[in-house]
């Protein structure tokens, strides 16, 4: 069964659980902020597609005090958690929250950067190109898109490696087995080649992979 991201129980346990599921979770965010520092100006407006519990948002709010953000999610429970997470940062005035998909955002608003971290692999295959096109349409010229997701697993050995690292990070055998079974029906991962092709078709250029941790890969691209 797919995770219910409207469940308060699931949302409350998300930040602990995700660190057991995703190898190098904090390292990925360190790489993302380095990319943003390189490609984005000091007074940027950044779109976060699928902000979840707000960890990523809070991290960037603290690093970039002159930036503003639009944070979307399809779960009202997640958005409430994100608001609670950043409340102590005294930064709510710099964030617009939207309970919406990216193609439902205000058409006139454009952004310097857009992030989709651990989100795109949940988008069904038939909807992925439109998802990327919607993100592209909300970016300024030469705006940067950064994504990090599970990519297509090709062998049993890759599945086994994922299970081993999740167990090393604290998942039980039962939890890691359930995680593997979810891959078959809860995720829609693209291969590296398919990711390049989809981003190019959506209007992005300069597509490149910036990181890989086992079957998780990060890609960046610029709006052309």
Automatic annotation (TrEMBL):
KW Transferase (keyword) present: yes
Signal peptide: none
Keyword Methyltransferase: yes
GO terms for MF: methyltransferase activity
Keywords associated with the record: Methyltransferase, Transferase
Alphabetized InterPro entries for the sequence: Methyltransf_25 (IPR041698), SAM-dependent_MTases_sf (IPR029063)
Family annotation (Gene3D superfamilies): Vaccinia Virus protein VP39 (3.40.50.150)
Superkingdom of the organism of origin: Bacteria
GO-annotated biological processes: methylation
Positions of the Methyltransferase domain: 46-143
SUPFAM superfamilies given in the database record: S-adenosyl-L-methionine-dependent methyltransferases
Pfam families reported in the protein's UniProt record: Methyltransf_25
Protein name: tRNA (Cmo5U34)-methyltransferase
Organism: Acinetobacter bohemicus
């Amino acid at each position: 069964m797919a995770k219910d991201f409207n469940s308060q129980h699931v949302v409350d346990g998300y930040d602990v659980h995700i660190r057991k599921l995703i190898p190098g979770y904090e390292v990925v965010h360190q790489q993302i902020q380095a990319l943003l520092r390189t490609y984005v100006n000091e007074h940027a407006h950044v779109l976060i597609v699928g902000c979840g519990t707000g960890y990523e948002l809070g991290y960037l709010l603290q690093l970039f005090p002159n930036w503003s953000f639009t944070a979307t999610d399809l779960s009202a429970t997640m958005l409430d958690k994100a608001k609670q997470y950043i409340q102590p940062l005294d930064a709510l005035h710099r964030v617009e929250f939207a309970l919406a998909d990216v193609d439902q955002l205000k058409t006139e608003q454009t952004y310097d950067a857009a992030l989709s971290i651990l989100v795109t692999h949940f988008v069904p295959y038939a909807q992925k190109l439109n998802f990327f096109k919607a993100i592209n349409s909300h970016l300024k010229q030469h705006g940067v898109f950064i994504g990090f997701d599970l990519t297509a697993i090709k062998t049993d050995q890759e599945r086994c490696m994922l299970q081993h690292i999740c167990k090393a990070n604290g998942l039980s055998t039962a939890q890691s087995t359930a995680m593997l079974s979810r891959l078959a029906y809860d995720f829609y991962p693209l291969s590296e080649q398919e990711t390049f092709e989809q981003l190019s078709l959506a209007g992005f250029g300069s597509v490149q992979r910036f990181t890989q941790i086992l079957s998780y890969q990060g890609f960046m691209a610029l709006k052309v």
